[in-house]
Specification:
This protein has 168 residues and is mostly helical. The chain is built from six helices and no strands. Helix 1 runs antiparallel to helix 4, helix 2 packs parallel to helix 4 and helix 4 runs parallel beside helix 6. The longest helix has 34 residues. The termini are far apart.
């Protein structure tokens, strides 16, 4: 159900962003932004299958889109678009929550590096949204990871050893 809701948010956001680009930038500037958002959102929706691979793919696609938009200058809107930033945040936060510590740390560093590359073009609304999304992903991923570990530790300490069940 969570992925269905997330898919609806992604779809509505992509359509809204495309409409906004059509009415502001004009031409076909919205195509690149929409394509990147669709790809990264699709990757985020299948993240449970191979968490590390999908998260790395999302980081690579987003980094490539940022690089392309930087190289194109004013010909393309700045990346990542809001939905791309949201999808990347979902990927990074989910990976931090569930992957082994070393892999999670690598993903966190990758997310920070991608966000830092966005800032190489200077401050804008795009950089603010990308930064807030990445901060939310890092903090939420770490918080949920700690809560999951505590719940697991509590469950393990409350279990009775199988070799000496209590007599009722």
């Amino acid at each position: 159900m969570l992925n269905v809701s997330l898919g609806v948010v992604f779809a509505l956001g992509i359509v809204f962003t495309a409409f906004m680009f059509m009415s502001s930038w004009g031409g076909i500037s919205w195509v690149f932004c929409s394509a990147v958002s669709i790809v990264v959102s699709g990757i985020a929706l299948i993240r449970e299958r191979r968490k590390l691979l999908t998260t790395v793919a999302g980081l690579v696609v987003t980094a490539a889109a940022i690089t392309a938009s930087l190289k194109a200058g004013d010909d393309l809107p700045q990346e990542p678009a809001p939905i791309t930033a949201l999808a990347l945040s979902v990927l990074v936060g989910s990976a931090i929550r569930t992957l082994p510590a070393g892999q999670a740390a690598g993903i966190a560093v990758g997310g920070v590096v991608v966000t830092a590359v966005v800032w190489s073009d200077g401050w804008s609304g795009v950089t603010s949204v990308a930064t807030m999304g990445m901060l939310a992903a890092l903090l939420t991923g770490l918080l949920l990871r700690r809560l999951d570990n505590r719940a697991l530790a509590r469950a393990l300490t409350q279990q009775e050893p199988w070799a000496s069940p209590s007599q009722s």
